[in-house]
Amino acid sequence: MRTYVIVLAALLALTAVTVAVSGIHFGSPAVNVIVALGIASLKASLVALFFMHLLHDKPLNALIFVSGLVFLAIFLILILIDVDFRLPEAVPAAFWAGPGLW
Amino acid sequence: MSETTTTTTHSPFLQHHYAEMEQQVDAGKIGMWLFLATEILLFGGLFVGFAIMSGRHHDAFRLAHEHLSRPLGALNTVILLVSSFTMVMAVHSARHSRQRALVRYLAATLALAGAFLVVKYFEYSHKFHDGLLPGKFYSAGGPEPAGQAMFFSFYFMMTGLHGLHILGGMIVLSWLLLRGRRGHFSSAYYAPVDLGGLYWHLVDMIWIYLFPLLYLIG
Fold it and tell me: What one-character DSSP code corresponds to residue A27?
């Protein structure tokens, strides 16, 4: 019970931090994205480890969950590489701006 | 086929195809975690699409996200975090056979889920009113309307799919509440509360990412 209260307090505090920090410009917008996603990941980890009991559960359940995240990371990274290095030549610029994509 | 007799008392909730309760609970948990992994991939497609398009329409996404209400988004974040806490307390209560506390915590979680959807309703009606709609339905004008329309396509798809998950969770919570009131759950058997809780926490977790991406950075 005490642990759950502490985790909730930490989650609410991190929410306040991420709202406050989003108003600061760190020079590059990419830094804001990294900070926001970093705090979100910290919050998600607290939920998974304590509220979803992964910390004390059978490791198989954590393995299943993490494998989902790993495949999402592969999906994201490979697609971003493709978009950044291959698509500019393969797809006309109008595709991205035009109404065809809707 | 020889019938083996066991000295342990047979739980009325033990399905006949499991040898014992522990096996049934473990199988249920593995099944739920597999389902949650597919949920990550379901939402993952939208997150990846959002990453690509916010790179392509960077300035338009920045402009469009200013239309979202940060206070309402933050309020909904707090509502869902507290609902995750009441949910885990419901599981805790069931595990310790505190049936009245279980019912109270489940009712609180259900009420918070409803509150989340009410806030979302006000946000959506405001967007509808201003013409901040997905794709070709976007009519709010402003600079780079194609990019802004793209942002609202993602906004409505991501929060809409998430909202459907909240609705689904409310059905599960209502079912748990009914069974809890009938006294089905105790330290001997509370797997449905446990599994419903895992699902509810995942829905909270997805919102933990949606809130900063859509409301704070765009």
Answer: S
**3-state SS string for chain A:** CHHHHHHHHHHHHHHHHHHHHHCCCCCCHHHHHHHHHHHHHHHHHHHHHHHCCCCCCCHHHHHHHHHHHHHHHHHHHHHHHHHHHCHHHHCCHHHHHCHHHC
Q: Which two tokens stand for residue A63?
A: 């393995």
CB contact under 8 A, B204 and A47: yes
User: Which residue of B lies nearest to A58 if distances are taken between CA atoms?
Assistant: B26
In this structure, is residue B189 part of a structural domain? yes
Contact A37, B110 (CB under 8 A): no
CB contacts of B41 in chain A (<8 Å) are 68, 71-72, 75
Indicate which CATH number applies to the domain containing B120.
Answer: 1.20.120.80
The ipTM is 0.90
C-alpha–C-alpha distance, residues B128 and B124, integer Å: 6
The Cα B195–Cα B175 span in angstroms is: 13
B22 within domain boundaries:
no
Q: What amino acid occupies position A81?
A: I
Please tell me the distance in Å from A16's CA to the nearest CA on chain B. 8
* Inter-chain touch B33–A33, beta carbons under 8 Å: no
pTM over 0.80: yes
Find, among B166, B87, B189, B36, the residue nearest to A4 by Cα: B87
| Chain B, nearest residue to A78 by Cα | B48
What is the full per-residue pLDDT of chain B (218 aa) written as tens digits?
A: 455 555 456 788 888 889 888 899 999 999 999 999 999 999 999 999 999 888 888 889 999 999 999 999 999 999 999 999 999 999 999 999 999 999 999 999 999 999 999 999 999 999 999 999 998 889 888 888 888 999 999 999 999 999 999 999 999 999 999 999 999 999 999 999 999 999 999 999 999 999 999 999 86
Domain contains B110: yes
Query: What range defines the domain where residue B135 resides?
Result: 70-217
